[in-house]
Design a protein that fits this description.
Elements: H1 2-21, H2 31-36, H3 54-64, H4 68-82, E1 92-96, H5 105-139, E2 141-149, E3 153-158, E4 168-173, E5 176-186, E6 189-195, E7 200-204, E8 235-237, H6 249-270, E9 274-278, H7 285-310, E10 333-338, H8 349-362, H9 383-387, H10 389-418, E11 429-433, H11 439-468, H12 472-482, H13 487-498, H14 517-521, H15 531-541
Antiparallel strand pairs: 1-11, 2-3, 2-7, 4-5, 4-8, 5-6, 9-10
Helix pairs in contact: 4-5, 4-10, 5-10, 6-8, 12-13
C-alpha cells in the first residue's frame, strides 16, 4: 500500500512539474480582455488620416504629378536606379545566373538558352523599364499588357492610357496576385475585362506606409489572419500603397497654397489704383457731368494707349497730349496716391520652407529640380546621386520591384517556349543594371575600394608583425587585440606567418632537398653505367 502511495505521489509530482514548466500560450489570455480587445486596437480617424476612396487617392497623386518639380524628382529617382548604357542606352541586361555557369551538359544548355532568349526579351524590357518604374513609384503599381505567341513566347508589351494604374484593380490572395479587373469603354459604355497574371504584368512597389483607405461594402468581412493555408484565404482587392508621393501630400498642398498666395499678391501689386479729386466749386451741374465724362474718357484713352504700346506700332513713336481746361482755381486735379503701393517686399520664406519639406520627403536636392541658385555642388557631375542615402534607398526598392516583375515575365516566356518552369531560387537567368552613376552602384564601388584599402593596410601590418619574428602565441595575441581578428582567423594567420619558409619540394627550408631533374641529368655517374645498360638507354631514346 505504501508503495502504491509513493508511486502515485511521484506521478502527481511529475505532472505538476511538467505543468509548471509548460510555457503559457495565447489561449491562456484572460477571456475578459479578449472581449474588450476590439476597443483597444486600431487608431482614431481624424481629418489628417481619414480613410479615402481609391479614386480620391489616385486623383490626388495624379494632380501632384502635374507639378514640374514633383515630376522631375520622380524621374530622377528612376534614372538613378536604372542608369543607362553610354552608347546603346540599355538599362537592364539579362545574363546567365552563377548557378548555371558550371561544366555540366545541363548547365551549358541553360546558358545557351538564356543568352539566346536575352537577345529577344532584353529589348522589350528596356523599352518599357523606365515607364513602368516611373508609374510604379508614383502610384505604387504599374501595369503592361503581355502579348505572346505559341512558338515565340512573349513578343511584346503595351503600356499606355489603357493600362493606367487608376483603371486596373488587382486582386490578391494572402499577398499573391491572382488576377485583375480592367476598366474598358465600348460604345460609350463601361465594361470590365478580367485578366490573369499571364496576361497583365504588374510592377508592385513594397508597401512601406499603411494608407487609410475605404473598402467597398461587399468586402467588409475580411478575415485573413486565422487561416494557415494560402488557398483558404479570401480573394480581396489589393490595397493602394508603395507610392513615393504619399508622405509629401501635406507639404505639397502647403506649397500650392504658399505659391498661390505669392502669385496673387504679386498680381494685386501690379494693378495700379489712384483716386483723383476735382475742384468743381461754382460749376453748373450739367457742366460738372460733362467735365467728369471728359476726364473719364481721357483716362480710358490713356489705358488703351498703354495696351497698344505693348503691341508696338504708332503708340511707341508719338506723344499723346491730354488737355484739361481750367478757370482760375477751379478744375484742378489732385491725386490722393497709389492705393496698391507696397512698403515691404514679399517674403518667400514660407514657400521655401514647404519646398524643402517636399524635397526632403522625396529624397531629392532642391538644386536638382529647378532651384540651381541653391546649388551645394554636384549638379554637373552627378554627385548628388552618389552621396544621397535617400536616393540609394529608393533605388534598391525600384530595382527589387522591377526584378520581381521581369522574372515573372521571363518565366512566362520560358514556359511557353520550352515548357519549363522554375522556382524563384532556381532561375537560370539574372538581371543586371548598368548604372555607374547610381547611388547603389557608387556605394558598392566605394565599399570595394574601402575593403581593398583596408586589406592593403592590414597586409602591411601583418608583414611588420612577421618581420618581428614573434612566436605563434604572441603573434595571435597581437592580431586579436590590435587588428580585432576573430579567434579562429587570427590563429590561422598566426600559423601561416610563423611557419618556416617552404623549399622547392614543399619541405621546410634548411632540410636536405632531393636532387632536381637538372642535377640528375648532369650526374657524372650516369656515364659510368655498364655497357649493357648504356645500350638499353640508347635503344629507349631511339
Amino acid at each position: 500500500m505504501k508503495l502504491l502511495n509513493t508511486m502515485a505521489n511521484m506521478l502527481i509530482s511529475n505532472r505538476e512539474m511538467k505543468r509548471s514548466a509548460t510555457p503559457a500560450g495565447i489561449g491562456d489570455v484572460n477571456r475578459q480582455y479578449e472581449a474588450l480587445n476590439q476597443m483597444e486596437l486600431g487608431t482614431f480617424n481624424s481629418p489628417e488620416n481619414a480613410p479615402r476612396t481609391r479614386q480620391d487617392i489616385y486623383s490626388t497623386w495624379e494632380l501632384m504629378q502635374k507639378d514640374p518639380q514633383i515630376a522631375e524628382a520622380l524621374s530622377l529617382h528612376v534614372t538613378a536606379a536604372l542608369g543607362g548604357h553610354e552608347t546603346t542606352g540599355d538599362m537592364i541586361f539579362i545574363t546567365p545566373h552563377e548557378r548555371v555557369r558550371g561544366k555540366g551538359r545541363r548547365a551549358k544548355e541553360l546558358r545557351d538558352r538564356v543568352e539566346r532568349e536575352a537577345l529577344h526579351i532584353a529589348p522589350i524590357i528596356n523599352r518599357y523599364a523606365f515607364t513602368l518604374a516611373r508609374q510604379a513609384i508614383a502610384y505604387g503599381d504599374s501595369y503592361a499588357r503581355i502579348y505572346t505567341d505559341k512558338r515565340k513566347g512573349v513578343v511584346g508589351l503595351m503600356n499606355n492610357r489603357h493600362t493606367a494604374p487608376s483603371l486596373i484593380m488587382p486582386f490578391e490572395q494572402a499577398g499573391e496576385t491572382v488576377g485583375f479587373h480592367g476598366l474598358e469603354e465600348e460604345d460609350y459604355e463601361r465594361s470590365i475585362a478580367k485578366l490573369t497574371p499571364r496576361q497583365l504584368l504588374r510592377v508592385k512597389m513594397q508597401r512601406i506606409e499603411v494608407i487609410p483607405q475605404m473598402t467597398m461594402q461587399v468586402w467588409q468581412d475580411r478575415k485573413t489572419l486565422i487561416y494557415n493555408e494560402r488557398c483558404d484565404n479570401p480573394i480581396l482587392p489589393a490595397e493602394i500603397g508603395g507610392s513615393f508621393l504619399y508622405p509629401v501630400e501635406k507639404p505639397w498642398k502647403d506649397v500650392v497654397i504658399s505659391l498661390a498666395g505669392l502669385n496673387n499678391q504679386q498680381i494685386a501689386d501690379s494693378v495700379k489704383q489712384a483716386f483723383l479729386t476735382v475742384n468743381m466749386e461754382g460749376m453748373p451741374p450739367k457742366q460738372q457731368n460733362k467735365y467728369k465724362e471728359s476726364i473719364t474718357k481721357m483716362l480710358t484713352n490713356y489705358r488703351d494707349q498703354i495696351q497698344a504700346a505693348f503691341k508696338g506700332g504708332e503708340a511707341l513713336h508719338g506723344t499723346k497730349y491730354h488737355v484739361l481746361p481750367q478757370w482760375g482755381d477751379k478744375q484742378i486735379l489732385q491725386s490722393v496716391g497709389d492705393l496698391s503701393q507696397r512698403n515691404m517686399p514679399l517674403n518667400p520664406e514660407t514657400l521655401m520652407l514647404n519646398l524643402r519639406r517636399v524635397a526632403g520627403g522625396l529624397g531629392i536636392d532642391l538644386s536638382l529640380v529647378g532651384w540651381a541658385d541653391m546649388l551645394a555642388g554636384g549638379l554637373g557631375d552627378g554627385a548628388s546621386f552618389q552621396t544621397s542615402a535617400q536616393i540609394m534607398r529608393r533605388s534598391n526598392l525600384i530595382r527589387t520591384s522591377l526584378i520581381d516583375a521581369f522574372n515573372h515575365l521571363m518565366s512566362i516566356h520560358w514556359g511557353i517556349k520550352y515548357g519549363e518552369y522554375f522556382d524563384a531560387k532556381e532561375y537560370p537567368w539574372q538581371f543586371d543594371f548598368f548604372s555607374d552613376a547610381g547611388a547603389a552602384t557608387a556605394q558598392a564601388l566605394s565599399n570595394k575600394q574601402n575593403k581593398a584599402n583596408t586589406l592593403t593596410i592590414e597586409m602591411q601590418a601583418v608583414q611588420m608583425i612577421k618581420d618581428l619574428g614573434l612566436g605563434k602565441e604572441a603573434t595571435q595575441l597581437m592580431l586579436e587585440d590590435r587588428l580585432d581578428y576573430d579567434l579562429s582567423f587570427a590563429e590561422k594567420v598566426a600559423i601561416a606567418i610563423t611557419a618556416p619558409p617552404m623549399g622547392e619540394e614543399g619541405l621546410p627550408a634548411g632540410m636536405p632537398q632531393p636532387p632536381s631533374n637538372a642535377d640528375m641529368s648532369n650526374n657524372p655517374e650516369d656515364d659510368d653505367l655498364p655497357d649493357g645498360l648504356d645500350d638499353m638507354e640508347d635503344d629507349y631514346e631511339d
